[in-house]
């Protein structure tokens, strides 16, 4: 019998920007901002821009850590669109668990009330990896219980190393791997045994170490052309929707994966959706292709934004100073619709998103 995987463990980020949208009531009036914000103004603006939840969603999302007001480490910042409770916490063994952190809402039409974003900042990569494992294992347990399947989407790159703790005790034994169905958000159109293959990377570093059934690992067909591979992968998704393995978002009508694990390149790309490339605007297909990727190899297939943004949970892992510029832009709140980095276009419509970051990645945001 599978043990409960993770509920008793609490991995603490070194800093949590724990944000929750509070509905204004007479007992919770706007509080004038008289102190210097804990957050840089740009980040505050970004958080503010995302704070459009209804009161019901907000109250659901508030954790005990954000329900207190105006303590030394917790201040309510007044914004034009609602009150934003922000709290920075340093880890110490004596602190109470911070999981789950509260969440903030993001804009969106029908999915507005249900959409949330969180930002976690870790001192050490090993802590980030532990927290990511805990997050994934908790969702695995939840979805396996709810729908007998857990649909997980991997990316390539540095994300895979950060998943290593899932293949170690206690998760190796505790997770019900038989429920996992594994997909790729993007794949390079190369043979599966090629050094550039995202499949090979995931197999070598993660999937070969955990007992996911081989027939539940959905790799790109590497015998096809780039267009053929994209169509084939889309057909695979459609078949699994028919079979009930992949859910469908009632909000968007697109496939709703249980957990979408994304990385981000230094240029702000996610999956194989690169800045300025026309496929970032694809709004019909589930899977599309790129033949001129600015990052080699040039031919890739990728999930489209409607699929990514329909996920139940998006975990975006971003580490290292090399990504600080894109992180700064993404969280600066100065976006204009013609100038969005792909990472800024990750906007859950029917779910929630957690950024797993480290201090170097956040280093261009002062006071973090
Ligand atoms: O090319 C790719 O890059 C991104 C980011 O990779 P990272 O090594 O900078 O984390 C990755 O998420 C994507 O899947 C991959 O194909």
Task: Explain this structure.
Keywords: Hydrolase. By secondary structure, this protein is of the alpha/beta class. The protein has helices spanning 41-49, 55-61, 125-147, 159-162, 171-174, 198-205, 226-242, 305-308, 324-332, and strands spanning 15-17, 20-22, 74-79, 82-87, 116-122, 150-154, 180-184, 186-188, 247-248, 255-256, 259-263, 287-290, 300-303, 313-318, 352-358. The strands form four sheets. The protein has a seven-stranded mixed sheet. A three-stranded antiparallel sheet has the order 2-4-3. It has a three-stranded antiparallel sheet with strand order 8-13-12. The protein is globular. Mean pLDDT is 76; it is low at 1-9 and 18-115. The protein binds the ligand O=C1O[C@H](COP(=O)(O)O)[C@@H](O)[C@H](O)[C@H]1O. The ligand O=C1O[C@H](COP(=O)(O)O)[C@@H](O)[C@H](O)[C@H]1O is lined by residues 155-159, 186, 198, 263-265, 271-272, 295.
